[in-house]
């Protein structure tokens, strides 16, 4: 459904009349695109965790992200070529995005559903039983039945009014309350770090494109700007692919989450500084700053699901925190584009980049001082409070 809505919103640009006067249509389609696309990342992470489990999650997720960047490179090249060929009707380049989203719909049907409980951040396939006291005086057990062909029919929480207090408690099956997981310091730090990173970062590419290409006298995008903007995206995505591959190898080699995540964060203030410094040095110098964008985005995108899995696995709230963090990141990016372009209009490009530079220091300081290392903690973050779930195993 999310892929279909993304395809629809991208293709809706064809209905915009000459002069870009259909603001309502553009706003509505962007809202639909934003809502639908926000489901894709958390859903891929959940399916990966459900299908491969916590031990293989990092390697498979890194592969998913790597090939996602490769797909973005192909889409950017095709969209750039389409815009160049069809100029000045560059809106046809959005059909590339719509077609790519439709291809994703076909691929979704081939994905395995995996273990529903494990996809939520629970232990999943186990013979063990977890017993917890409910507010109604009953004890509740998270149980599964080995050898069953249907998880949904045999797995879930069952009431056992007088379970023995000596029953084996397995923390991997304890479902944390929303308050417990929302108030976890690591969750709060990750949300605010991601918010400020994207708040500082999202507008930078817009400003870079304006500095490199800009508009002609009629207010339309210059044709010469098309390969530059496409090249900026391709260079960043290519570097993200390399950063994802390197980050995967480094984490396997014993590197912690924190130094790699900080390395990604540190690229943003350096990138802003170099764009300001090289604003009049030519398009090649400006374009080269996208390498830093690729390093930062590659490490950030790779380690985000790693961190969420470290924080939540065993709590049953993996999907909730993936959605919460993605929402915070998206909110930061939205405000960045809005406020950043308002600053450009009133004070110019340098002022907007300077604001991004100072804002980019906030997530670095916050993550450095407040975020502990999470590598090796996966499955240990269980809570003492459990809630009742139904027989489908998908309510939390």
What do these coordinates show?
By secondary structure, the protein is mainly alpha-helical. The chain is 65% helix and 4% strand. It has 14 helices and three strands. A three-stranded antiparallel beta sheet has the order 1-2-3. Strand 1 and strand 2 form a beta hairpin. Helix 1 packs across helix 2, helix 2 packs across helix 3 and helix 9 packs antiparallel against helix 11. The two termini are 21 Å apart.
Can you tag this structure with a few keywords?
3 strands, single chain, disordered C terminus, three-stranded antiparallel beta sheet, mainly alpha, 396 residues
What is the mean predicted local confidence, pLDDT? 78
Number of strands: 3
Biggest sheet, spatial arrangement of strands: 1-2-3
| Cα end-to-end separation | 21 Å
User: From N to C, what is the helix and strand string?
Assistant: HHHHEEHEHHHHHHHHH
| CA gyration radius, whole angstroms | 23 Å
Q: How much helix, percentage-wise, in residues?
A: 55-70%
Number of helices: 14
- Class inferred from helices and paired strands: mainly alpha
How many strands, what sense, and barrel or not for the largest sheet? 3 strands, antiparallel
Low-pLDDT stretches are 126-173, 384-396
Break the fold down into its secondary structure elements and pairings:
Layout lengths: L1 H10 L11 H64 L7 H15 L7 H4 L10 E4 L5 E5 L7 H4 L1 E5 L17 H5 L2 H28 L12 H28 L4 H21 L5 H6 L1 H23 L5 H30 L1 H11 L1 H10 L26
Antiparallel strand pairs: 1-2, 2-3
Helix pairs in contact: 1-2, 1-3, 2-3, 2-8, 2-11, 2-12, 7-9, 7-12, 7-13, 7-14, 8-11, 9-11, 9-13, 9-14, 12-13
């Amino acid at each position: 459904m999310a892929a279909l809505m993304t395809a629809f919103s991208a293709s809706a640009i064809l209905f915009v009349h000459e002069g870009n006067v259909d603001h309502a249509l553009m706003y509505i389609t962007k809202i639909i695109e934003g809502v639908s696309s926000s489901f894709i990342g958390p859903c891929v992470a959940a399916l990966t965790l459900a299908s491969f489990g916590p031990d293989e999650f990092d390697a498979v997720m890194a592969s998913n992200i790597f090939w996602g960047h490769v797909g973005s490179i192909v889409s950017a090249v095709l969209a750039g070529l389409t815009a160049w060929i069809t100029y000045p009707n560059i809106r046809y380049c959005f059909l590339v995005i719509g077609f790519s989203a439709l291809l994703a719909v076909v691929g979704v049907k081939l994905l395995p559903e995996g273990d529903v409980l494990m996809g939520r951040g629970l232990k999943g396939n186990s013979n063990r039983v977890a017993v917890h006291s409910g507010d109604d005086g009953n004890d509740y057990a998270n149980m599964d039945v080995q050898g069953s062909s249907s998880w949904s029919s045999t797995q879930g929480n069952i009431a056992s009014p007088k379970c023995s207090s000596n029953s084996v408690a397995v923390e991997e099956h304890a479902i944390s309350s929303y308050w417990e997981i929302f108030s976890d310091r690591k969750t709060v730090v990750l949300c605010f770090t991601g918010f400020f990173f994207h708040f500082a970062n999202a507008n930078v590419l817009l400003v870079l494109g304006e500095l490199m290409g800009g508009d002609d006298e009629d207010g339309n995008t210059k044709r010469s700007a098309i390969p530059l903007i496409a090249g900026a995206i391709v260079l960043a995505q290519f570097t993200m692919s390399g950063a994802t591959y390197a980050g995967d190898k480094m984490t396997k080699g014993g590197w912690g989450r924190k130094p790699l995540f900080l390395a990604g964060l540190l690229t943003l203030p350096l990138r802003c500084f170099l764009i300001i410094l090289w604003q009049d040095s030519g398009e090649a110098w400006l374009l080269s700053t996208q390498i830093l964008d690729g390093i930062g985005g590659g490490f950030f995108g790779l380690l985000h699901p790693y961190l969420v899995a470290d924080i939540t696995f065993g709590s049953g709230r993996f999907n909730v925190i993936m959605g919460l963090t993605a929402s915070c990141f998206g909110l930061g990016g939205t405000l960045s584009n809005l406020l950043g372009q308002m600053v450009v209009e009133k004070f110019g490009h340098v002022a907007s980049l300077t604001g991004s530079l100072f804002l980019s220091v906030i997530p670095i300081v916050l993550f450095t001082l407040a975020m502990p290392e999470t590598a090796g903690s996966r499955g240990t973050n269980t809570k003492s409070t459990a809630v009742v779930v139904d027989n489908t195993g998908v309510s939390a």
